[in-house]
Design goal:
By secondary structure, the protein is mainly α. It is built from 7 helices and 2 strands, in the order ααααββααα. It has a two-stranded antiparallel sheet with strand order 1-2. The longest helix has 38 residues. The protein starts with a helix and ends with a helix.
Length: 160
């Protein structure tokens, strides 16, 4: 019973963490000052200078945002991907431990909840000062969740 309760807590903890982060204005999450103070990022300049993309109507490049802005952009988007990957995997595990449904249904339920929470997270950001919702972030979150689906499926087929 305790083990089952712990499995149920993991996705809830992740959702709480995501909710807290999307409640914070950008200024509270800005990691550029700490990055510039503590990490020697100049060695990444040759690689960062190759990046020229547009995301949410803004140019992401060293020229537009500085090297620290480009690095922060990729850290933030990687966090989106990684957190929703973890949410997907922990939700699947919680569903699996609780109900023991057919594997495909467990995956589908976990995926729908994860993508739904990604959409809710972006809506929640629209209520936070200096934060804007963006469908591109939901797509990154969904990519993290789908990566979880693929890896879970590979493990399921290999170990069942």
């Amino acid at each position: 019973m305790l083990k089952n309760a712990i499995y149920q807590l993991f996705p809830i903890i992740i959702m709480i963490i995501l909710f807290i982060f999307s409640s914070q204005p950008y200024e509270e999450q800005n990691i550029k000052p700490a990055m510039n103070q503590w990490i020697p990022i100049e060695w990444l300049r040759p690689l960062a200078e190759l990046i020229h993309i547009t995301y949410h109507g803004q140019e992401v490049s060293v020229e537009a945002q500085g090297i620290d802005g480009v690095i922060e952009f990729f850290i933030r988007k990687s966090a989106h991907f990684g957190m929703f990957f973890l949410l997907m995997v922990t939700l699947w595990n919680a569903i699996h431990q609780r109900w023991r449904l057919p594997f495909g249904k467990e995956l589908l339920y976990a995926l729908v909840i994860t993508v739904g929470y990604a959409a809710f997270d972006e809506f929640h950001q629209s209520l936070t000062p200096n934060r804007t919702p963006y469908i591109g972030d939901v797509m990154i979150d969904t990519a993290g969740a789908l990566t979880g689906v693929v890896l879970l499926t590979i493990f399921y087929k290999k170990f069942r």
